[in-house]
TrEMBL record:
The protein's name: Bifunctional chorismate mutase/prephenate dehydratase
Residue stretches making up the Prephenate dehydratase domain: 96-272
Listed InterPro entries: ACT-like_dom_sf (IPR045865), ACT_dom (IPR002912), Chor_mutase/pphenate_deHydtase (IPR008242), Chorismate_II_sf (IPR036263), CM_dom_sf (IPR036979), CM_II_prokaryot (IPR002701), G/b/e-P-prot_chorismate_mutase (IPR010957), Preph_deHydtase (IPR001086)
Gene: pheA
Documented EC number(s): 4.2.1.51, 5.4.99.5
Record CDD domains: ACT_CM-PDT, PBP2_PDT_1
Keywords: Amino-acid biosynthesis, Aromatic amino acid biosynthesis, Coiled coil, Cytoplasm, Isomerase, Lyase, Multifunctional enzyme, Phenylalanine biosynthesis
Pathway, per record: Amino-acid biosynthesis; L-phenylalanine biosynthesis; phenylpyruvate from prephenate: step 1/1; Metabolic intermediate biosynthesis; prephenate biosynthesis; prephenate from chorismate: step 1/1
Ranges for domain Chorismate mutase: 1-96
Subcellular location: Cytoplasm
Purpose: Catalyzes the Claisen rearrangement of chorismate to prephenate and the decarboxylation/dehydration of prephenate to phenylpyruvate.
Length: 365
């Protein structure tokens, strides 16, 4: 058989597989519609339906990755199923998700990575606004950055948890690649200003010192904002990611200029709904305590004694009294696990206040 004939035969096979795939996806979507009907019909008076189930979605993705035999990689198949689920859920109920904007930020990329592209995503001007939109019920969930592997904590997010009573329903991790971007009005040998978010400037500090040591660095509220600005301005450049570059049609002068190749940011999904365990969960708590000798030791001891893996501990001013602090602690396990329950009970006897911010599935993608 000639290679032309081989190609023709293979394409006929692909067409027929696509038709079967479409049938299966449609059947799955009809199932999701049926799930919505069952959820609605089993409501008790005054109860509102819970359409989005993060623990179920995390389980579906993990399961797909476990049974995947290739040739597509686990991340790739999970991404495809992420989008199928996103579309199925949108049939049940289109989710509204607020994120730290403007359009083109890494937080938007994180929101779409977590929820898929079938949600209604709404940009907010500040982290606090994301929290307030969720509290007000104007959106179902919010997405905010919480820590970067190079630059550390995003303090605005931690402080917002002290002010608002919201639940952490999930986490997303995103590899952060920064590029040096210019618009068509900029002569590349005449760059006099580089705009970006302060965190992004810091993540590219060494590269900037080596390549643009004497160019002014200007911190703006987001790197998407920086990209928007250089689109029309003369002789300025922005540091931003792929989404912002595409959105504003900018040219990449230099790619992947972050100082650390593993530069990643972790984002949190905030909402009002507690998430049941899937067996691979994390919990976030806030603890405040009196400053006395051995206080931190007493705080950490129960985790150590019960073999609970602390993934993060962060200190912030408590905002009620000078030199008093609160600790943000993340650890592996769910607050319904008996072991975690007993540790939290013991901790509550040692500390002034303890608040569970939420237990949620570990990031799958
Ligand atoms: C179908 C359901 O509703 C939603 C859609 C899901 C899906 O498409 O698999 C999974 C969980 C929910 O977010 C369900 O609860 O099972």
């Amino acid at each position: 058989m000639s290679s032309q004939d081989q190609l023709k035969a293979l394409r006929v096979r692909i067409d027929s597989l696509d038709e079967k795939l479409l049938e299966l996806i449609s059947e799955r979507a009809r199932c999701a519609e049926e799930v919505a009907r069952v959820k609605m019909s089993s409501l008790k008076p005054g109860e509102s339906p819970v359409f989005y189930r993060p623990e179920r979605e995390a389980w579906v993705l993990k399961h797909i990755m476990e049974i995947n035999k290739g040739p597509l990689g686990n991340e790739e198949v999970a991404r495809l199923f992420r989008e199928i689920m996103s579309s199925c859920l949108a049939l049940e109920y289109p989710l509204k998700v607020a994120y730290l904007g403007p359009e083109g930020t890494f937080t938007q990329a994180a929101a779409l990575k977590h929820f898929g592209h079938a949600v209604i995503s709404l940009p907010m001007a500040a982290i606090d606004e994301v929290f307030r939109e969720v509290v007000a019920g104007a959106v179902n969930f919010g997405v905010v950055p919480v820590e970067n592997s190079t630059e550390g904590a995003v303090n605005h997010t931690l402080d917002s948890f002290l002010e608002h009573n919201l639940v952490i329903c999930g986490e997303v991790e995103l590899r952060i690649h920064h590029h040096l971007l210019v618009g068509e009005n900029t002569r590349t040998d005449k760059i006099s200003r580089i705009y970006s978010h302060a965190q992004s400037l810091a993540q590219c500090r060494k590269w900037l010192d080596a390549h643009y040591p004497s160019v002014e660095r200007v911190a703006l509220s987001s790197n998407a904002d920086a990209a928007r600005r250089v689109k029309s301005e003369w002789n300025s450049a922005a540091i931003a990611g792929d989404m912002a570059a595409q959105l504003y049609g900018l040219t990449k002068l230099a790619e992947k200029i972050e100082d650390r190749p593993d530069n990643s940011t972790r984002f949190l999904i905030i909402g009002n709904q507690e998430v049941p365990p899937i067996g691979d969960d994390k919990t976030s708590i806030i603890v405040s305590m009196n400053n006395k000798p051995g206080a931190l030791h007493a705080l950490l001891m129960p985790f150590y004694e019960n073999g609970i893996d602390l993934t993060r501990i962060e200190t912030r001013p408590s905002r009620c009294g000078k030199w008093t602090y609160v600790f943000f602690i993340d650890f592996v396990g769910h607050c319904h696990d008996p072991l975690v329950k007993s540790v939290l009970e013991r901790l509550s006897q040692e500390v002034v206040a303890l608040k569970v911010l939420g237990s949620y599935p570990k990031a799958v993608l």
